[in-house]
Amino acid sequence: MAQRRGQAQAHTTKTRKTEPVEDFDFLASQQSTGSDDNALQLAVAQQLMASKEKKRKEMEKKFFAAAKSRLTNEMAQAAEEVKSTVEATELVYAKFILDYAAAEDAIRALWTEIKKEQDTLLDVAKRQRAANEELRKGTEKAQIVGMAQVKEACHETRSIIETLLPSSGE
Questions:
Q1: pLDDT 10s digits, 9-27
Q2: Where along the sequence do coiled-coil regions lie (predicted)?
Q3: pTM (2 decimals)?
Q4: In the Cβ-directed half-sphere of 77, how many Cα atoms lie within 13 Å?
Q5: Is residue 25 included in any domain, yes or no?
């Protein structure tokens, strides 16, 4: 490659010596050496572009690997947090269920006690009612007997008054 440049420069120097500077065809000299240079530049540019593309792909690969790693870590942490939250919620719910069952058992025991007391009170009320009925019947009989005695006493009193005062009844 260095030889080509040297040959191209030697060629342009020969042209300069033989031709005056004003008549020098710069574009023509560039074209003759430029085709080799262009090919070289094109090859270098392609290598540079390929190198840049390779570096870009490597950077993308590293970026995606780092992103994947970070995302995996974040997801693992989030999953752990969700898991611990679910476990804590389940523990609280289990405690609530146990407390609720205990409260329901206590309430049921109280209702059972209330039912027993109510049954006892109903039995006492029935016995009291029966006793009151018996007392009423006894009182009624005694009242009838008493009224009969009053009536008899009234008849006797009247008959005494009539025997003592026979004329007052007439």
A1: 555 554 445 444 455 444 4
A2: 42-88
A3: 0.43
A4: 6
A5: yes
